[in-house]
Amino acid sequence: MFQYDKPYNDLPLLPPRVEIEEKEVLKKAISAGRQLAELKGLTYTIPNPEILINTLTLQEARISSEIENVWTTNEHLLEAFSSTTQTLDAHTKEVLRYREALWDGYEILAKRQILSTNLYVKIYQIIKKTTAGIRTTPGTKIINSRNEIIYTPPEGFTVINDKLKNLEMFIHSDGKIDDLIKCALIHYQFEAIHPFTDGNGRTGRIINALFLVLKNRLNIPVLYLSDYIIKNKEWYYKLIRNVTEKNDWKSWILYFLDAIEETATSTAQKIIEIKNLFNETLGYAREKLPAYMYSKELVELLFEKPYCKAQFLVEKNIAQRQRAAVYLKELEKIGILKSKKVGRENLFQNIKLYELLKSS
To answer: HSE on the CB side for 276, CA within 13 Å?
Structure first.
């Protein structure tokens, strides 16, 4: 029986023992799935997937971390991503580790095709820069803004580990439940288990994206629900509590499906905007720069790295160091880039791309 201040070791296993695929829920799942399919199709139209990896993922890292009260600015984050000499504050480092955790998780998933407890632990360890694993000590409480206990997750390594094993089995079970509905169930369960001392929310949101890749609903993890959650934060926590306290799965699933649909729609629009800006920049560079200096690879790099530097051109074999610096300065002269001293380095901001990401 659930009690706020007692460890919820009786947290029910998945799948829920209630009807979850009601007509309204299935209708919403179809609508959300349609938008997700459109998003997946659009990701193939971007010439280089790293453009999305390094732009959308950094935005997700920042917003997802804000939910956990880890703050940094867009500008500081993008500078930090490119600079090797800048002194970083603890929050910015933690946001960058979120991005690292997401892409390490994606690469591991691509090789093994398993969303396992070991992978959750790996993601958590990267985010928090720790060697710790599943909670082993008692005393974890979830409190609200008034410092009131609203939930006490399961306690004891064996209890937590067994519930995570059940979650893993559910993830990889046959496809009787719609993937997007299943994603909602997985997200609730992971948050209710709350296996780590910190970073559970961020780890859970990474699992969302990886699950959709695992089920081939996306080819790369570019659907991030953090922005929707932070805009509807009160409902997010209320509906999760209602699953725990009232077994109200329907309201939670509908909320989650709406998050997928709205986020897929807004992300698709953002990809279209990035693609249009890329083509515009490509044409403008071709028009204004000498043929020996202009290249499609160079413009792609400006979108992979919203803050670029000469070393990046050298690493991509676009130009040697002295010539690379000249190329960037010429791009600044025609108004595509803007230089800025960061630490001991000169970084060059892709002006219009930065403004586009800033509006996210």
So the answer is: 7
